[in-house]
Amino acid sequence: MAGARVQVTLDGVPAAAPGQPAQLQLNATESDDGRSFFCSATLEVDGEFLHRNSSVQLRVLWSQN
Q1: Which of 9, 28, 47, 58 has its CA 20 to 30 A from that of 35?
Q2: How far is 4 from 52, CA to CA, in rounded Å?
Q3: What's the rounded Cα separation, in Å, for the pair 41 and 34?
C-alpha cells in the first residue's frame, strides 16, 4: 500500500486507484500447504531506488470430515 499520490502495480498491473493497495487473489488447496512466496518491491524517489524483499510460507487450514 502506498500514499495517496503513488501508483502501485503488481506484476505490471496497476491497482484500482492511486494510493490503493495492489491485491493478488490466490485459490489454494491443501496440496499448497507449505508453499513459499517471495515479493520484491522497488520504489524510486528523486532518482534513488529503494528495494524491499519479503518471503512468506503459506499455511492452508482444512478439515478432513
Answers
A1: 9
A2: 20
A3: 23
Interacting residues of 28 by C-beta distance below 8 A, sequence separation 6+: 35, 58, 60
Is the sign of the CA dihedral 22, 38, 57, 28 positive or negative?
Answer: positive
Asked if 23 contacts 4 with a C-beta cutoff of 8 angstroms, the reply is no
Q: What is the pLDDT tens value at each position of the chain, 65 positions in all?
A: 566 677 677 777 777 777 777 777 888 888 999 999 888 888 777 888 888 899 999 998 877 76
DSSP for 11-45 reads TTEEPSSTTSPP-------GGGTT-EEEEEEEEEE
Cell numbers placing 47:
532518482
| CA–CA gap between residue 37 and residue 56 (Å, rounded) | 5
